[in-house]
Amino acid sequence: MNKEQKIQKLVEKTKQVFKDCFLPNGCLVAAPTHMPYYPAQAKSYLYCWPGRDLGFNITGALYLGIDVFEQVLNWIWERAEDYKTSLTKWREGLLFKSYYPNGRLREPQFQPDQTGTLLWAIFEYGKTRKLPLVAEKIIEKSTQGLIGVWDKDHFKVFIEDLWEERIAHPRFKNNLTYSLAACSAGLEKANEIIPNKEAKIIAQEMNNLIEKEAYDKESGYFLRRFGGTVPNDKNIDTSMLGLVWPFEIVKPTDPRMINTIKAIEENLTDEKGIYRYKFDEYEGEIEQTDLHYKMGAGAWPLLTFWMSIVQNKIGNREKAEKYFWLVLNQLSDDFLIPEQIFSQKDPRIGVKPLLWSHTMFIHAAKELKYI
Question: In CATH, what number is assigned to the domain containing residue 179?
Answer without folding.
Answer: 1.50.10.10
